[in-house]
Amino acid sequence: MSTPGRGLHGRVLDTLGPAITAGEYPPGSVLLTDELAQRFEVSRSVMREAVRVLESMHLVESRRRVGVTVLPECEWNVYDPQVIRWRLAGSERPRQLRSLTVLRSAIEPVAAGLAARLATPEQCAELTECALGMVANSRGHQLEGYLFHDMAFHRVILTASGNEMFARLGGVVAEVLAGRTHHDVMFEDPDPAAVTLHVQVAEAVRARDAERAERLTREITVGALQELDILAP
Amino acid sequence: MSTPGRGLHGRVLDTLGPAITAGEYPPGSVLLTDELAQRFEVSRSVMREAVRVLESMHLVESRRRVGVTVLPECEWNVYDPQVIRWRLAGSERPRQLRSLTVLRSAIEPVAAGLAARLATPEQCAELTECALGMVANSRGHQLEGYLFHDMAFHRVILTASGNEMFARLGGVVAEVLAGRTHHDVMFEDPDPAAVTLHVQVAEAVRARDAERAERLTREITVGALQELDILAP
DNA sequence: AACCCATTAGGTACGACGAATTCAAGAGAC
DNA sequence: GTCTCTTGAATTCGTCGTACCTAATGGGTT
After folding, report:
1. Strands A60-63 and A30-31
2. Average of pLDDT values for B176-203?
3. Residue B67: helix, strand or coil by DSSP?
4. Which of B36, B31, B163 is CA-nearest to residue B107?
5. Cα-based distances in Å from B92 to A32, A159, A204
6. Among A4, A185, B90, B122, which one has the highest count of C-beta atoms within 10 angstroms of its own C-beta?
7. What percent of chain A is helix, strand and coil (3-state, nearest 5)?
8. Nearest-5° angle of CA A168, CA A169, CA A172?
9. Do the beta carbons of residue A161 and residue A114 sit within 8 Å?
10. Residue A4's pLDDT is what?
11. Residue B70 contacts residue B31 (beta carbons within 8 Å)
12. Contacts with B92 from chain A: Cβ below 8 Å
């Protein structure tokens, strides 16, 4: 997915990145550039470029006379799409999924409220189209079709909010939704109540009812939280 | 601040990063690695490492026979702390500040609600201490002291939420708050109502009243939005 | 305890070659 | 004559290897 094999240093990252984010190297672990270069059978130049990228993600820190030390998790750029993908692909997947779902529950309602005020007619139409597509695929185990429209729906909401920070989470939300369908338990058809909520959100945005759009979207995200057993006692 | 001068490639980034994020090179502009190396008086190796970092931030894309092309803004990793700093330092500062404030308004209330349920006694105490510090510095143009406790307050809230994605925004919020005090108009003492709200949030968290903590924090962020004239007509 | 120095690993520079893509010139067909 | 397809040359990044510099570290000396 995304950008596979954009050079040798990319190949190295495809192995090193997941390994580090999976916690295979405890914080403080020391890696040596030349040693890594030998292990991956690449030149030092290539390995140095890979280390620079990991450094920009704050996964590691390079210091003279010491080597490349792995940084503690609290330093990582956890919003980096690449880091998110690596963590979603590894053993930290459940925890990452929970973090992202909580993030969704905070962002999406506000984004929907903004979208209700700022969405263009085209975006309103697109939203309705997505919601109808969800309805059409909500029965008969058409999970892929449903997922496609679900991802599109949330991406439109986030984009239509007019906030670039929200819009940039479209890909993340898409991966969360895809993960729920593909990896986790999703044997049955989607919850009819959730489908209805999406349709109602589309209506609220079209009607410029920000408060209603926000409240309905909050209900959707609450459902997502409940699916992962994230709730108050 | 942060990490100045971590090598020659860092120096290059300190110039190129702000230039690109400021829009000095329109999307699609092509830069040549060797040309850049000459301009910055560094070797090609160093320049290549710098380009790799910019590439990992999705600011540029490197292609053979073409060069290093600047990507459109919608591709940038706008959550990268480095990118945020560069944009806050440039001409895009007002727009960046608005985006981040809207982001705050979505995140912080939810974070406060979670903090009310998950904060440790130490974090509750720290929160109260911060709020009292804000009160103590709220009169007599003690802006620096007020800012210090304000930043600490919001950082504790975000950390105590137990969500790493929220916690990672602590630095961003701190920079927004600092920006408001230093660059923008903030001649007078802070709004007494805002100070009171912070104290009440600390109380609500201590009392484990999630709903109240969330609502009060929402009032704080609404105030921040109004300061930037972000509101519904 | 303070100081000095050898070791070590990253930091930088330079040069060479390989690989891929773009662009233009030329051959061919209609 | 114009258009298309092919071919090839130019260009720029990609990779490699070497050499040397720099600066932290750790141990040994005074």
Report:
1. unpaired
2. 87
3. strand
4. B163
5. 39, 20, 33
6. B90
7. 65, 5, 30
8. 125
9. yes
10. 66
11. yes
12. none
Of chain B residues 7-66, which have a CB less than 8 A from chain A?
Answer: 9, 45, 48-49, 52-53, 55-57
First to last CA, chain B: 39
State the sign of the Cα–Cα–Cα–Cα dihedral A105, A111, A112, A114.
Answer: positive
Q: Half-sphere exposure of A215 toward its Cβ, with a 13 Å CA cutoff?
A: 6
pLDDT tens string A116-156: 999 999 999 999 999 999 999 999 889 999 999 999 999 99
Give Cβ neighbours of residue A27 (< 8 Å, ≥ 6 apart): A70, A71, A72, A73
Q: How many angstroms separate the CA atoms of A200 and A212, rounded?
A: 9
**Neighbour order of strands in the sheet with A67-70:** A30-31, A67-70, A60-63
User: Hey, of A33, A79, A101, A114, which one would you mutate to test binding to chain B, going by the most B CBs within 10 A of its CB?
Assistant: A79
Question: Which residue do the tokens 């895009």 mark?
Answer: B92
Q: What is B103-132 written as a DSSP string?
A: HHHHHHHHHHHHHHHH--HHHHHHHHHHHH
Does B60 contact strand D, using a CB cutoff of 7 Å?
no
Residue A190, helix vs strand vs coil: coil
Q: Which two tokens stand for residue B104?
A: 């705050």
Q: Which of A73, A72, A51, A53 is nearest to A62 (CA)?
A: A51
Q: Is the CB of A64 under 7 A from strand D?
A: yes
User: Residue written as tokens 């100070």?
Assistant: B195
Looking at the DSSP assignment, which residues form a beta bridge with residue A68?
Answer: A31, A62
Q: What is the pTM of this model?
A: 0.94
B39-53 burial, b if ≥16 CB within 10 A, otherwise e?
A: ebebeeebbbbbbbb
Model confidence at A98, pLDDT cuts 50, 70, 90, reads very high
Are A36 and A17 spatial neighbours (Cβ–Cβ below 8 Å)? no
The protein footprint on chain C, as nucleotides within 7 A of a CB, is 7-15, 18-22
Q: How far apart are CA A21 and CA A87, in angstroms?
A: 6
- Apex B49 CA angle, A83 and B169, nearest 5: 35
Give the residue from A16, A2, A85, A24 showing the smallest Cα distance to A54.
Answer: A16
User: Does B208 reach chain A within 8 Å, measured CB to CB?
Assistant: no
Q: How far is CA A182 from CA A11, A21, A144, A162, A187, in A?
A: 25, 22, 9, 30, 10
pLDDT digits (tens, 9 = 90+) for A54-72: 999 999 999 999 999 999 9
User: Please, what is the end-to-end C-alpha distance for chain A in angstroms?
Assistant: 39
